[in-house]
Structures are given as structure tokens and as C-alpha cells.
């Protein structure tokens, strides 16, 4: 939670700003230059008005005669200064924006590159929501102070010039300024310090209100069928009321400080008038000087607050920076070897004494089996027996804690980048489709001709429904495209694997939503391809097609043999697959 | 699925009508609004104190008849003005706090009201709307109004007030100069409208591109295993790069528009000032204006700049707020199509329930009929299995039975009382459905099961789990009832979620239990045990089970077979399996798979 501004956060914040300036020196330079123009012209505009008052207005009123030349010159000066000021403002805003967007873009790119580089085991340790907000909200927070930064630098510049200008006019008058402006600045710092934590709390409660609503509506059926609307409304109201209180607390601070920051420069002008008339009486200054200083006070009241804005964003920026850095500094990519695989034949797999564990305990212990080239091996076991973990080890999405996986006799860890994915294809349990066309989803960027895409779709029994889609291979699917049924999605995912002509195909229960007859056709078709197949299976029909079955329970291989053999000799296996009988759902995809 | 959607009345009416209706619905907003506006007037009046002070000092203090400054006058004027500044500060403070308090109180009430209303809408309406959209009705949309109240609304009050008091003072000094200032700023106001539209359009593009960017990034996270398994990193990286570049280009364009628009008002202000000086001097020479008044005008012009610069943003905020209001009203305007008869409804006495379907038909709006003339009677205590292919109308039957939807034709009676006449409190207590998707709340397992019977003790929950034969499962969980289930219950497997949902419904102790494929994802071995446990647990109650596996049908008292929205067969399993018909075919295909 971003908290108050303290020296530590300030130091860390300035380090982040330093990174920004070093990364985007040109944009920073341009925006600060523009901001300096803005600073100078702001002070100059007060000076011009002072001079116009002194040299044009007062003489004209005193003499009762307007001198056209002086009048035109005065008006031109007012306009000219304003034009430069406007250019300064525009330049400052534009370049500051570009600087901010460039930084955001660069860090989003870098964070995503890390996601693509880091191994799956790293992904598993970090919740999806967190990774998404690292790349979006956090990157945004890091560079939030960049937008007001050039303005703040310009304001510092402006204050120095203003101080000089006031000193040139009169020391006592300048003294009023030296009292008022630090006061405005100090007040603003106090303001931001008080506001920061309250605003953060309100922000957090806003998210909580949203979470409760989301969860409650999502569970709407449960709420309704158990008649819990009142209790849910109470739960929501509790959050909503806390949010209300938090917003009111924010309002109290804003409501106090905004008018105060408004009033302070006003009091400053009044003080200037009072001191100024005494100095005027003493003959130390002219009326025009007085007008100049008053006007300067009016103009400076607002920009001076920009310093506070940067400070206000710093705590959030620092927190965001730490989170983004954590991603960027994460290491632990899977190191690659240099070996290659040259065969075009079905692959052989040898799994030897494989061990794997998560923090909660060992998932796989001492797992050994072999897959002969061209054979189909079924992996069977109850939920939680480590089947999915085993499949990710086979295609080296993760590395084991011990033991080896040999692909064509070579340890997968010794293979060069791309070698494993070039030979083996895993179809994971949960189908993931990209927001892309059917073709894009199947080829995933590889140059695969359409005939081969269709061939893969045919093998996956997906050619029929794809042909029926409005735009065939070009039909957009995924989040914003055509909705497909679970079985159709699974068949596309399978086609994606087949299009790569893998020599080893690993199916992690990846046809569970496909109707059994269609599944049988798919499996028959697979036997025709030049691939060894490892399939995690539940259905007896699927299992009985395998040449060999590996029966896994609690992370250990209990038995290996044909389906018949295991039925005969293993009680556990028999119980398991017979219970699976009931799994055969009569209405599954029958009409598909 | 087609379904009814939210009311669109609010989308069609004008902004003023929307606001008027919105304010009627939330009387909290209007409380003490008169005093608040009075304070606002006082607070903005303070903005002209400084110009007046400058004018007075110049005209009367410094130039009183050319004798040099009248220091006593200046002192008094300065003190009086300082007092005025302090008073306006206080007025501003009190106004702000009042405004925040009333608006936030009103908005919280609106939020809760809309939330409750969403829950009152039928499943049909709820499923017709994207859930995210419903959530944003009570969050984002209300936040938008809140933001307007906190910033935009305040700014409008202050800005308008500022322009009004500045104009009033200008008119006191010189109507000619006031006219000049207005004429300078008016074209600007129109010009800003045009820029504003361009800026809005540019930001719309930015938002779209950012959405694309987010989805590209999310693919790299959510699809990590596929990307890595297929070595597709380069392709995804390219997609992200394209999205990043397109996003940045859109941002730069929008920023360029804002950067050019924003400082325009500076130039216009300078133009106004220059004109004021020229015309002012000419007027002054003619004796119609004092020097102090002219200088005061230069200060007054600056009071126009702020409102002008903020005007576009204020308009935007106001439009957003009205749009937010409309969407919230869209929820509140939608009448629940499955309404609770409330106080006037019937409260059913406890005890086994009998059900009668009388020629019931159902179709989704603009959809084909899903159920056609279904008549059936389920006597109390009977356990019925409903079977049929996907799309045969089984689930619709269950939803009508639990009044999650109302039939289009025909009627449903429970214990002889029309279902629509039964109070929800009674209905929900007595008839409970266990849906296929075992949704769990982000809490502990125990809390989720307790959802079925608030206030139940851990012992009661443990007893219920034991009755369902789930003790082994519970003991296998690392922290037992204290196990956190995660968002939507995702820390548990799909099967485990269904077990928890089943236990939750069982805790509610209903007289009619409806199971909609409630154990489809459960480990088959476990399901066999649950099936047995349910047999004893539902003894003495009426139970309707939409069967996922035909073993359920074998165990039921009676089987009801649905086909294409009609009941085609009913009777005990032993008889139906002999009869020619749908059931026999279903059973044969099931048995064939089993024999492998």
C-alpha cells in the first residue's frame, strides 16, 4: 500500500525519475526546455503588465491623452509573450506525454518479454492477475509522475526567475513572496501527505466493492436458490458504506486544502498591496511594480502546486517500480544445451527415475517407463496422481527435481532451443485459443500451407465444423470471435499440435469434451501418423486403444502393461477404470 | 442463448429527464442542497476580492488626488479584503464537505439499491447481460457519477460562479470592456467544443488500443503453457510489439490534440487583455474609466481562463455522469420478470413436497420452444431421475421447478399451490437446486457450506458431510473446513467444488432437492459413494435428479425421459429398459461403452 511520503520513498522515487531521464533524455530535454520557456514567459507576462501599467496606462490616465504607438506596443507585447507561453505549454505537455508513453511502452514490452522468457515453473508461482497488473497497472503507476515532471522542473525554474524579478523590484516586496510561496508549497506537501493514504484506501475499497459485486453476481444462482439476497446485499452494503466513508474522508481533506491553497496567494496579494503602498510612499517602487508583483502572485498560485503532484505520485510509482523490477530481475530460465534431433521417425521416450515436487510435497516419485517409437502409451490414474505434471516434464515445460527424460536417447536438458518443441507437441488439459483466426490458432506463426492446416484439421476431426464457419480458416475465434463448443475448441487445439507434424504427441486428457465416437476416430487416425503418442485418458475406449498403459497413483508408477494385463493383475487399476464406466456420459456431445 | 435484457427507457430520454428521475430515486442528494448552493455562491464571490482590492488601492489609496498613497485607506481596504478571503475560504470548506457527504451518501444508497435489484432480476435477465456489465452498473457507473460529484460537479459550480461574479464586477466597472472580454472568449467556447469532440474520439481509440494491448499481454500469461510447448514466443512477442506500438501512436495523437487545445485559452486571454488595455485606455482618456478599474480588468480576465480550460473536461465528466446514471437507471427500470409475491404470498408448511406440471411450455425470448406442453406429477417423497440428450429440456425443467424462470404457458403447482404464489422466503427454504457448476465464494470451505444454513456450527457441518459420505474427502484436505477455496472455488478441483456445493445444499435441509448433473465432475469412485449417501439422505424427501450417468436412473424410483422438449417416457428403470423407445437406446449405448 503506497503510504506517506518519507525521505526513503523520496530517495527511491528520485532514483526512478533518474531512470526515466536516462532512458528518454531527448524527450525529457525537449519537455524541460519547453517548460522553461513557459516559466520565463509566465514571469515575463507579469513584468509586461507591470510595465504597461506604468508606461502606458498611468501616463495616459494622468495626461488624458493616449499615445497610439505606446498603446500598440503594449498590446503587442502582451500578445507576443502569450504566444510564446502557449508554445511552451503545448511543447511541455506534448513532449512530457511522449516521454511517459515511450517509457510505458518500453517497460510493457520488457515485462512481456520476461513472461515469454521465464519458464512455466515461474508462471506457476505467480497468480495470473498479478502478472497482468504488473504489465498494465504497475507499469502505468511507475511512470505516472512523468507527466507532471517537466512542469515541476519548469516551475522550479519559474520560481527562481520570479524571485530574481521580485528582488529586482524591491527587497521587502520580494520578502512577502518568499513567505507566501514556500507556504503554498509546504501546505501542498502536507496536503498530499494527508491525502495520499486516504485516497489509496478509497481506491482499495473501490476495488473491494467491485470484487464483492463480481463474486456475488457470478454466484447469482447460488444466492437466488438459497434465498440469500438479503445477506448478500448486507455484505455489499457494508463495503459500499466503507467506500462512502473513505470518499468522504478524502473529501474532507480536499475540501479543506483546496480553498486554503486558493486563499493563500490571495492573502499574499493583499500583503503585497499593503507593503507595496508603504514602499510606494517611501518612493522605493512605482505603481507598475506593484501591479507586476500582484499579477505574478496570481499567476504563480497554480503552477506551484505541480511540485506537489509529482510528490503525490511518487509513493505509488515506487511501489510499481519494485513490482516491475521483480519481474524484470527474475531469472531462472531453462538453460538449453546444444544437441539437436535429426530424425524424421516417430520419437522414442525414456523416462528414468523422475522426481518432481511443489512446495506442498512430492508430486512424482521415481517414475520410469519407456515409449517405443510409434507406439501409443496411456497414462491412467486418479485425480491428483501427477499425470499432468508428467506431461509437462515430457515436453520440458518444467525440469524435474531428479531423474531424466530422454527423447530419442538424448536428455531433453541437453537439447538446443526449439529442439523439443520441434519434435514434441503437448495438448494441455485446458484448451487455450488465441484471439486470432482459426488458421492463426493452428499454425501459431509457422509458415504452414493451408493444405496442411486442413490435413491437421481433418485428423483432429475439426475440418467439418471449420468448413461450416462463416469465413472458414479466416474466422476469428477466441475472446472476441465466434464462440465454439468445448469439444470444438479441443479439436482445434489438437489440430494445432498435429499441424506441426510432431514425432511425439502428448495429450493431457485433451479430448474430454469430444464425443466418444469422434474421439475414437481421432485416435484411429493418429495411429496412421508418424508419431509416438502419450495420452492421459479416462475413458475405457481410449485406454483400450493404447499399446501400453502406465498406471500412476500418488505420484508413483504402480504398474505398466497392456490394458488387459493390468485389469487382470492390478486391483487398484480395475477399480479405477471400472468406476470410469460411469464417467461415460450418455448425452456428451451426442448431437455434435 | 437469447434472453431478456435490461430496460432501455433511460437510454432514450434526455439528460435532464434522466437526472430528474435519478434524483427522485436518491433523495439523499437533495438534502440541504439550498444551503450548499448558498455557500457555493459565497465561496466563488471570494474570487473577485483581489481584483477589487487592487482597484481600490490603485484608485483611492495610491492616487488620491495625486497626494501620494493614503496608507490608512489601503490598510483598511486590505484588512477588509483579507477578512472576505477568510470568510470565502470557510464557506468553500463547509460547502465542499457538505457536497461530499450528501453525494457519497446518495451514491452508496444508489449502489446498494442497484445491487439488490440485480439479484432480484431473474436468471433469464441476468444471463442475458454479460456479468461484467452488471458488475459495472454498481461499480464503474456509480464511480463515474461519484467522480463527477467530487470533481466535475464542483468545478462546474465554481467555474460558473467565478464567471458570473467576474462578469458582474466587470459590468460595474465598464460594460464596454465586459463586452470585449465576452466577445473574445465566446468563439473560443465554440472552438473548444470541436476540439473536444476530436479529443474524445482520439481517447476512444486509445482505450480500444489499450484493450488490445491488454489482451495481447494476457495471452502471454494465460497461454504460457501453449506458447512454451510450441515455441511460439516470437509470434506472441510480435503481437505484443504491434499492440504496444499502436497503443503508443494513439496516445501520442491524443496527447498532441490536448497539447494544442489546452494553451489556446492563454492566447485568447492575452488577446482579451490586449484589447482591454487598448479600449480601456481610450475609455479612460475620455474619463469613463479609472486606472484601477482597468488594472482590475486585467486580473478579472484571468478568472475566465481556468473555467475555459476546465470546461471541456467538465463537459466530458458531465456526459459520463449522465451516461452512468442512465445505465444505473437501466437496471432499476427493469422489472424482475420472476417476481416475489411477498407478504401476500403463500408460506408452505414444512414437509415433503409434491409437484405438478400442468401443460407447461417454455421458450427463451425470440427462441424456439424448449419445453412443449409438459405435464407431470411428482408425488411427495418420490425420487425421480430425469434423463435425455443435451438440449432435450432437462435443465429447463429443473429451472422452472425451482422458479428460476417462469413458464411461458401452463402452470406449476407445489403442494397444490401455484408456484408463482409462493413467497420466495418459503420457496427458497423448501426447494433447493444444486447446479452443475458448483460456484463457491472466496472464503473457507466451512463458510461456503454454511452458506446453506447461516449460523450452522462446525459440528453440524461435519455431521452433514458424514451423512453424505464425504468425511474421507474432508480429511484429505490440508486444512479441513478451514481450507480456503480461492476465487470461484478455483483452489479446489471441479469435482471438489461440486461436493462442496452439494454439501451446501444439503445443509439447507430442503424438502425438495433438485440435482442438475450435480456430480458430473466428481471422481467416478467418489460419485458412487455419494450416490449411495444421497440415496439415504434424500429418503423421505422429494428429489429430482437430472442424471448424468444412467446409474442414477437405475437407482431412482421413477425415470422421466425427455426428448425434444417433451416427456416421451416415464416409469421405473426396469420397465423402461424393456420398452422400445428413447430410454432403451440411451441405455444400450451406455451399456456398450461399459462393456469394453
TrEMBL record, chain A:
ABC transporter domain sequence ranges: 349-579
Subcellular compartments: Cell membrane
Gene3D superfamilies: ABC transporter type 1, transmembrane domain, P-loop containing nucleotide triphosphate hydrolases
GO molecular function, one term: ATP binding
Domain ABC transmembrane type-1: 30-316
Transmembrane segments: 26-49, 69-90, 142-167, 173-191
Pfam families: ABC_membrane (PF00664), ABC_tran (PF00005)
InterPro entries referenced in this protein's UniProt entry, alphabetically: AAA+_ATPase (IPR003593), ABC1_TM_dom (IPR011527), ABC1_TM_sf (IPR036640), ABC_transporter-like_ATP-bd (IPR003439), ABC_transporter-like_CS (IPR017871), P-loop_NTPase (IPR027417), Type_1_exporter (IPR039421)
Bilayer topology term: Multi-pass membrane protein
Keywords: ATP-binding, Membrane, Nucleotide-binding, Transmembrane, Transmembrane helix
Main localization (coarse): membrane
Protein name: ABC transporter ATP-binding protein
Organism name: Actinocorallia longicatena
UniProtKB/TrEMBL annotation, chain B:
Species, as recorded: Actinocorallia longicatena
Family annotation (Gene3D superfamilies): ABC transporter type 1, transmembrane domain, P-loop containing nucleotide triphosphate hydrolases
Residue span(s) of domain ABC transporter: 355-589
Keyword ATP-binding: yes
Name of the protein in question: ABC transporter ATP-binding protein
Highest taxon in the source lineage: Bacteria
Every ABC transmembrane type-1 domain range: 35-320
GO molecular function: ATP binding
Subcellular location, record wording: Cell membrane
Transmembrane helix keyword on record: yes
Record's bilayer topology term: Multi-pass membrane protein
One Pfam family it belongs to: ABC_membrane
Main location: membrane
Keywords: ATP-binding, Membrane, Nucleotide-binding, Transmembrane, Transmembrane helix
Residue stretches spanning the membrane: 33-53, 73-94, 154-173, 179-195, 256-283
Amino acid at each position: 500500500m503506497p503510504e506517506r511520503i518519507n525521505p526513503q520513498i523520496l530517495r527511491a522515487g528520485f532514483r526512478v525519475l533518474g531512470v526515466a531521464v536516462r532512458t528518454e533524455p531527448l524527450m525529457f530535454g525537449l519537455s524541460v526546455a519547453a517548460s522553461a520557456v513557459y516559466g520565463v514567459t509566465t514571469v515575463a507576462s507579469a513584468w509586461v503588465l507591470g510595465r504597461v501599467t506604468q508606461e502606458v496606462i498611468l501616463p495616459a490616465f494622468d495626461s488624458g491623452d493616449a499615445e497610439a504607438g505606446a498603446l500598440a506596443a503594449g498590446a503587442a507585447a502582451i500578445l507576443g509573450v502569450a504566444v510564446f507561453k502557449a508554445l511552451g505549454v503545448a511543447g511541455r505537455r506534448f513532449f512530457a506525454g511522449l516521454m511517459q508513453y515511450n517509457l510505458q511502452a518500453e517497460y510493457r514490452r520488457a515485462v512481456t518479454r520476461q513472461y515469454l522468457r521465464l519458464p512455466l515453473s515461474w508462471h506457476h508461482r505467480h497468480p495470473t492477475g498479478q502478472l497482468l497488473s504488473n504489465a498494465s497497472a504497475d507499469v502505468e503507476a511507475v511512470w505516472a509522475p512523468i507527466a507532471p515532471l517537466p512542469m515541476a522542473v519548469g516551475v522550479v525554474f519559474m520560481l527562481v526567475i520570479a524571485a530574481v524579478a521580485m528582488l529586482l523590484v524591491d527587497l521587502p516586496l520580494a520578502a512577502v513572496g518568499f513567505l507566501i510561496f514556500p507556504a503554498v508549497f509546504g501546505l501542498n506537501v502536507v496536503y498530499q501527505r494527508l491525502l495520499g493514504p486516504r485516497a489509496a484506501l478509497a481506491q482499495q475499497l473501490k476495488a473491494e466493492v467491485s470484487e464483492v459485486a463480481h463474486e456475488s453476481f457470478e454466484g447469482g444462482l447460488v444466492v437466488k436458490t438459497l434465498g440469500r439476497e438479503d445477506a448478500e446485499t448486507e455484505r455489499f452494503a457494508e463495503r459500499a458504506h466503507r467506500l462512502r466513508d473513505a470518499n468522504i474522508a478524502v473529501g474532507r481533506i480536499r475540501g479543506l486544502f483546496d480553498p486554503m491553497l486558493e486563499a493563500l496567494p490571495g492573502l499574499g496579494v493583499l500583503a503585497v498591496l499593503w507593503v507595496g503602498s508603504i514602499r510606494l510612499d517611501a518612493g522605493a517602487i512605482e505603481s507598475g511594480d506593484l501591479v507586476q508583483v500582484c499579477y505574478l502572485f496570481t499567476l504563480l498560485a497554480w503552477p506551484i502546486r505541480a511540485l506537489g503532484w509529482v510528490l503525490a505520485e511518487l509513493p505509488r510509482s515506487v511501489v510499481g517500480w519494485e513490482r516491475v523490477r521483480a519481474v524484470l530481475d527474475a531469472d531462472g530460465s531453462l538453460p538449453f544445451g546444444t544437441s539437436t534431433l535429426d530424425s524424421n521417425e516417430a520419437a522414442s521416450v525414456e523416462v528414468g527415475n523422475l522426481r518432481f515436487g511443489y512446495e506442498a510435497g512430492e508430486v512424482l516419485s521415481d517414475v520410469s517407463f519407456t515409449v517405443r517409437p510409434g507406439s501409443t502409451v496411456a497414462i491412467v490414474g486418479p485425480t491428483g496422481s501427477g499425470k499432468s505434471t508428467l506431461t509437462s516434464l515430457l515436453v520440458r515445460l518444467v525440469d524435474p527435481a531428479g531423474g531424466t527424460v530422454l527423447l530419442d536417447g538424448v536428455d531433453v536438458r541437453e537439447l538446443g532451443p526449439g529442439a523439443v518443441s520441434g519434435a514434441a507437441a503437448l495438448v494441455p488439459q485446458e484448451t487455450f485459443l488465441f484471439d486470432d483466426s482459426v488458421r492463426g490458432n493452428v499454425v501459431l506463426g509457422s509458415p504452414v500451407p493451408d493444405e496442411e492446416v486442413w490435413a491437421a484439421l481433418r485428423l483432429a476431426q475439426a475440418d467439418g465444423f471449420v468448413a461450416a464457419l462463416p469465413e472458414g480458416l479466416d474466422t476469428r475465434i477466441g475472446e472476441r470471435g465466434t464462440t465454439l463448443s468445448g469439444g470444438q475448441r479441443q479439436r482445434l487445439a489438437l489440430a494445432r499440435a498435429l499441424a506441426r507434424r510432431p514425432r511425439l504427441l502428448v495429450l493431457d486428457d485433451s479430448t474430454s469434451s469430444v464425443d466418444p465416437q469422434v474421439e475414437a476416430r481421432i485416435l484411429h487416425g493418429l495411429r496412421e501418423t508418424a508419431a509416438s503418442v502419450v495420452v492421459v485418458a479416462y475413458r475405457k475406449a481410449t485406454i483400450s486403444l493404447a499399446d501400453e498403459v502406465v498406471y500412476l497413483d500418488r505420484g508413483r508408477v504402480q504398474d505398466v502393461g497392456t490394458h488387459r494385463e493390468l485389469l487382470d493383475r492390478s486391483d487398484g487399476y480395475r477399480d479405477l477404470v471400472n468406476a470410469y464406466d460411469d464417467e461415460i456420459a450418455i448425452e456428451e456431445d451426442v448431437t455434435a | 442463448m437469447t434472453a431478456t435484457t435490461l430496460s432501455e427507457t433511460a437510454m432514450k430520454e434526455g439528460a435532464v429527464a434522466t437526472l430528474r428521475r435519478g434524483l427522485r430515486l436518491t433523495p439523499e442528494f437533495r438534502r440541504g442542497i439550498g444551503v450548499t448552493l448558498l455557500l457555493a455562491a459565497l465561496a466563488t464571490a471570494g474570487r473577485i476580492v483581489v481584483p477589487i482590492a487592487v482597484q481600490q488601492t490603485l484608485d483611492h489609496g495610491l492616487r488620491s488626488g495625486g497626494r501620494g498613497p493614503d496608507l490608512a485607506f489601503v490598510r483598511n481596504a486590505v484588512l477588509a479584503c483579507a477578512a472576505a478571503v477568510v470568510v470565502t475560504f470557510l464557506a468553500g470548506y463547509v460547502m465542499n464537505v457538505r457536497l461530499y457527504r450528501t453525494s457519497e451518501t446518495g451514491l452508496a444508497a444508489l449502489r446498494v439499491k442497484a445491487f439488490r435489484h440485480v439479484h432480484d432480476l431473474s436468471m433469464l435477465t441476468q444471463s442475458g447481460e454479460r456479468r461484467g456489465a452488471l458488475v459495472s452498473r454498481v461499480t464503474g457507473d456509480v464511480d463515474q457519477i461519484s467522480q463527477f460529484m467530487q470533481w466535475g460537479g464542483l468545478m462546474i459550480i465554481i467555474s460558473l460562479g467565478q464567471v458570473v461574479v467576474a462578469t458582474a464586477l466587470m459590468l460595474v466597472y465598464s460594460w464596454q470592456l465586459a463586452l470585449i472580454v465576452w466577445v473574445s472568449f465566446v468563439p473560443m467556447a465554440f472552438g473548444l467544443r470541436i476540439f473536444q469532440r476530436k479529443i474524445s474520439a482520439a481517447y476512444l481509440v486509445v482505450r480500444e488500443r489499450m484493450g488490445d494491448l491488454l489482451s495481447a499481454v494476457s495471452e502471454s500469461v494465460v497461454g504460457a503453457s501453449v506458447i512454451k510447448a510450441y515455441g511460439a514466443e516470437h509470434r506472441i512477442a510480435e503481437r505484443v510489439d504491434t499492440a504496444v506500438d499502436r497503443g503508443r501512436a494513439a496516445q501520442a495523437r491524443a496527447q498532441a490534440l490536448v497539447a494544442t487545445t489546452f494553451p489556446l485559452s492563454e492566447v485568447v486571454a492575452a488577446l482579451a487583455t490586449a484589447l482591454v488595455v487598448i479600449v480601456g485606455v481610450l475609455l479612460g482618456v475620455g474619463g469613463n474609466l479609472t486606472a484601477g478599474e482597468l488594472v482590475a480588468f486585467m486580473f478579472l480576465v484571468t478568472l475566465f481562463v481556468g473555467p475555459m480550460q476546465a470546461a471541456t473536461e467538465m463537459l466530458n465528466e458531465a456526459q459520463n455522469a449522465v451516461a452512468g446514471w442512465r445505465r444505473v437507471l437501466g437496471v432499476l427500470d427493469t422489472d424482475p420478470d420472476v417476481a416475489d409475491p411477498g407478504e401476500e404470498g403463500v408460506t408452505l408448511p414444512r414437509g415433503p413436497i409434491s409437484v405438478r406440471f400442468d401443460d407447461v411450455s417454455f421458450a427463451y425470448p425470440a427462441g424456439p420452444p424448449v419445453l412443449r406442453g409438459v405435464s407431470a406429477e411428482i408425488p411427495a417423497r418420490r425420487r425421480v431421475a430425469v434423463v435425455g440428450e443435451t438440449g432435450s429440456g432437462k435443465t429447463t425443467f429443473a429451472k422452472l421447478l425451482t422458479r428460476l424462470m417462469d413458464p411461458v404457458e401452463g402452470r406449476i403447482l407445489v403442494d397444490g399451490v401455484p408456484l408463482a404464489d409462493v413467497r420466495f422466503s418459503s420457496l427458497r427454504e423448501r426447494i433447493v437446486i444444486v447446479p452443475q457448476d458448483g460456484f463457491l465464494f472466496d472464503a473457507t470451505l466451512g463458510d461456503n457450506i454454511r452458506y446453506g444454513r447461516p449460523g450452522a456450527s462446525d459440528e453440524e457441518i461435519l455431521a452433514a458431510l458424514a451423512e453424505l459420505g464425504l468425511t474421507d474427502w474432508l480429511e484429505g484436505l490440508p486444512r479441513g473446513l478451514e481450507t480456503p477455496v480461492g476465487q470461484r472455488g478455483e483452489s479446489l478441483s471441479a469435482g471438489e467444488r461440486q461436493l462442496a456445493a452439494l454439501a451446501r445444499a444439503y445443509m439447507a435441509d430442503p424438502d425438495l432437492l433438485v440435482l442438475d448433473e450435480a456430480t458430473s465432475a466428481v471422481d467416478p469412485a467418489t460419485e458412487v459413494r455419494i450416490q449411495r449417501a444421497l440415496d439415504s439422505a434424500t429418503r423421505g424427501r422429494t428429489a429430482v435428479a437430472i442424471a448424468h450417468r444412467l446409474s442414477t436412473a437405475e437407482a431412482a424410483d421413477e425415470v422421466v425421459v425427455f426428448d425434444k422438449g417433451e416427456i416421451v417416457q416415464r416409469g421405473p428403470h426396469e420397465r423402461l429398459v424393456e420398452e422400445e423407445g428413447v430410454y432403451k437406446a440411451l441405455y444400450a449405448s451406455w451399456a456398450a461403452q461399459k462393456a469394453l
